Amino acid sequence: MEEDNGNSNSSITVDTTKWDRSVWLMKCPLIVSKSWQSQAASSSSSSSDSPQVGKVVVSVDPLRSDDSSALQFTMEMGGNDVGNMPKSYSLNMFQDFVPMCVLAETGQGRVTMEGKVEHKFDMTPHTRNMEEYRKMCRERTNKSMIKNRQIQVIDNDRGVNMRPMPGMMGMIASSSKDKKKAAPVKGPEVKRTRRDRGELEDIMFKLFERQPNWTLKQLVQETDQPAQFLKEILNELCVYNKRGTNQGTYELKPEYKKSAEDTGAE
């Protein structure tokens, strides 16, 4: 493959020797991804061997060996630094997905094809660890609500920038009146400032306590957050109803519904 960047001598060569190698694509919770990255970083600093971050257990029903649904995949976490994180997860396999390949780029700018995606999984906490996972979510939400106060030292202690200078009183009064008369109207082109992720999750839980289903437009108006940033949070916390009476709305995933109810009771 060659890419023309305006220079006839510039090209990118892709190594395709491993194109037919089968790989798995898996979507995992953020806390699992951080744990694996932490284990890989600590292992790379101590030795050259790759750490065992987990193992996949495959269960087969012998009475339905010809049925693809008879296969059950479970991820068991490895390592000793997982803390209070659930140790067992279910891997839900997708039957239909767009064919994909995995590309990697080295530090020298070399691009290689690592293989083609044969299976795609969605990693969720196992049923027996669901209560433990809900407890961890509640703790994360409570920690995000704690605000650390900070004290900032001002170098200029004469207060020049804190009090109006002589001759500026009339200017300040007139400018404040003008602001009251011509209040800015917020339009759709106004950029919205992102909130802290933990604070926004807490707001979302409270909104879904008020009513179980929301459209994206309603949530943007309620939270005053960018739609794209809001979608990232919704993809983690909610499911999107594509059909039925609640078509076009979001509602909390089952594990978060229980978490929100427990938090409200507390």
Short description:
The chain is of the alpha+beta class and 266 residues long. The chain contains 7 helices and 9 strands.
What this model shows, in words?
This protein has 266 residues and is an alpha+beta fold. Helices cover 34% and strands 21% of the residues. It has 7 helices and 9 strands, in the order ββαβββββαααααββα. The strands form 2 sheets. Strands 1, 2, 3, 4, 5, 6 and 7 form a 7-stranded mixed sheet that branches. It has a two-stranded antiparallel sheet with strand order 8-9. A hairpin with a 5-residue loop joins strand 6 (101-105) and strand 7. The protein starts with 13 loop residues before the first strand and ends with a helix. Pfam families: TFIIF_beta, TFIIF_beta_N. It is found in: Nucleus. One of its GO terms (biological process) is transcription initiation at RNA polymerase II promoter.
